[in-house]
Write a structure and sequence with these properties.
It contains 12 helices and 11 strands. By secondary structure, the protein is an alpha/beta fold. The strands form 2 sheets. A 7-stranded parallel β-sheet has the order 1-11-10-5-2-3-4, with helices on both faces. Strands 6-7-8-9 form a 4-stranded antiparallel β-sheet. Strand 8 and strand 9 form a beta hairpin. It starts with a helix and ends with a helix. Bound molecules: 6-O-phosphono-beta-D-fructofuranose. The site of 6-O-phosphono-beta-D-fructofuranose (F6P) has 14 residues, from helix 4, strand 5 and strand 7.
């Protein structure tokens, strides 16, 4: 591929950054699709960037998933961050406890020696139950922190895969697909233009908090997710993206 031979990694970073119009792009050489162990490198680069951006008093929100679990495992620090509070970006979910944001928050806050708050609320609840739960003092306290998020680190999913992973009923999967959803992040499903076409009935970070954070770090590995990321990048340009080289080429192809 001529384009690939001509373009060095740092030029590729600049090109993708410029095309997407986002704050920063950090690339790991290689292709996750060909070599799945690249997930660890992507997570490691993400963890390093994250540590460099932290400031006293920050409120850090983290999402769940396998990428974010790897991110948590990659954090290495001797410093004590006692003025920082780490929270899950939204209600936790599912049967896989390891990949839940609460678990990821606990790993990260342990490594940072920071404060943390958990959010013990299911991913999806009925309207009424939700209203009652968010008045619980402990839950309310965590939600107040989430609202103050200034550093967000999050994973990205393809809309189709996330709808399946969450075991949504087939009519809802159809609905999400028919609305043109391509990407998912923190419970929101986005179409190509970055419009929200579907949202889980959960609590946690809202779009304003997503847009207003000082540091918003998206981490994903794999060209399959490129389209999903492009959609999400439409609504917030203040994003630092950490991904693999192959995904960067895929983004350029799609733009
Ligand atoms: O379910 C939490 C979440 O962060 C989703 O918002 C995202 O789409 C997904 O996990 C990414 O998961 P993975 O890193 O395992 O692909």
């Amino acid at each position: 591929d001529i384009m690939k031979d001509l373009m060095g990694l740092s030029q590729l970073q600049d090109k993708v950054k410029e095309k997407l119009g986002i704050k920063k792009v950090i690339l790991v050489p290689g292709s996750f699709e060909k070599n799945n162990s690249l997930l660890t490198d992507v997570a490691k680069y993400g963890a390093e960037y994250f540590l460099n951006t932290l400031k006293d008093g920050d409120t850090v929100s983290l999402t769940g998933g396998s990428t974010m679990l790897e991110f948590a495992n990659c954090i290495k620090s001797d410093k004590k961050y006692n003025s920082i509070t780490v929270v899950p970006a939204r209600g936790s979910m599912g049967k896989d406890v390891q990949m839940q944001s609460n678990n990821i928050v606990s790993i990260v806050s342990n490594k940072l020696n920071s404060q943390y708050k958990l959010l013990n609320i299911p991913d999806e609840l009925g309207e009424k139950a939700m209203k009652t739960l968010i008045q619980e003092p402990e839950i309310k306290r965590t939600l107040d922190y989430i609202e103050k998020t200034n550093v967000l680190v999050f994973g990205i999913g393809r809309a189709d895969e996330m709808a399946k992973r969450r075991k949504l009923p087939s009519e809802r999967i159809k609905e999400i697909n028919s609305k043109g959803a391509v990407g998912e992040a923190f419970g929101y499903y986005f179409n190509k233009n970055g419009d929200i076409v579907y949202k889980l009935n959960t609590v946690g970070i809202d779009l304003d908090a997503f847009r207003n954070g000082r540091e918003t770090i998206a981490i994903f590995a794999g060209a399959r997710k490129a389209e999903a990321f492009i959609a999400i990048s439409k609504i917030n340009k203040n994003i630092a993206l950490v991904t693999d080289e192959e995904s960067a080429y895929r983004i350029l192809e799609l733009l």
